[in-house]
Amino acid sequence: MTLALILVIVSLLFLLAIRVPIGIALFTVSFLGIVAVRGMRPALQIVAQEPFSFVSSWTLSAIPLFIFMGLLVQTTGMSASLFHASRLWLSRMPGGLAVAANFSCAGFAAASGSSVSTAAAMGRLAIPEMLRYGYQPGLATGVVASAGTLGSLIPPSIIFILYGIFAQVSVSKLFLAGILPGLLTAGVYTVMIVVRCKLDPTLAPKIEEKVTWKERFISLADVMPLVLVIGFVLGGIYAAIFTATEAGAFGALAVLVIAVLQKRLNFQNISEALMAAVINTAKIFFIAIGAVLLTKFLAITGSGAKLADLALSLQGNRFLLLSMMVLTYLVLGMFLDPIGVLLITIPVFLPVLNAIGFDLILFGVLVVKFIEIGLLTPPVGLNVFVIKSVVGDSVSLVQIFRGVGWFLVCEAVVVALLFSFPSISLFLPNW
Question: FRET partner for 90 with CA separation of 20 to 30 A, picked from 23, 36, 106, 414?
């Protein structure tokens, strides 16, 4: 590993430690690294060419489309209808409202592509309802914080799109690879919630309200159009009718039409969705441009090739290499946002993965799982702090972290299953 690479990584970690935004930190250290190796004029030429070349990628245009689609679902109240329907159908189970929140997060994740957005949107809807019925605060907040991470795994996932572009693998295959692990995670969460609440009914008092079958089926009428759109988008990708970008365009247009037909759309909510989509897209693209420059720096210095040679020398101990990568994701995930973690690490890890011949689709799913865990772990579990901002002083941060602890055990079980049975991730994309 070159001295230049070590200096760049140390400088990057220092800037992040003093709270410099990730995009600015990545851009600064990469640009200065290129200046140090090649000089100012070549560095300026690279800055003039590489960002435009990257941002003009057709696949990348799926990101603002899926962001807009998810924000429309949130601002027009479709997410509220999703939780209402789940609540009517599942509330009679042990811990029924928590189970409903879990599956509502999974459903909203299939429209938003963002863990933070999923946790924030469903937290405002589900947590007050659970607390009103006497649910333990740790369970009520922990389930939404944890199930919110499904936004990174269940397609369409913004992280999968970025990973696919940098790793040069099919985004559509990554989307398909995330479906079964996402459903598995939601299923394991459900089993844990039901078993805990069955053994200790004080966690989630039984709800005695009477709900008719007519009310249940009426609730489905509000959410069925959204479910059909999500199914058609994913089915279109699976059947090779859509590319990821075309699926994003179709999904955003379809949700817009549904909002109009259901008379949910007005100037305020569409303007909020558009403005938030522009801001979020700009943030993501700026971080991604910094990662592009870091990748260019690695190519110029030959650091990527040296990392690959190092990996080949340790190929007999793949477990050690993968363990180091896992530890890196878990540690960085405690302090940084998911996209920052991904774009800092992928340029460095990709040559190593190629050298040892590890399946990049499978690694993409595992990376998302590790990032999900990072969103829940102290001291800076981002989803936990999102939920804290939603509940205010009614639930303490300690209670939320304790509630999340049970779901981290579930995450460990899911990760062990994904490592032991790679076909869980690879079955659909390989079919």
Answer: 414
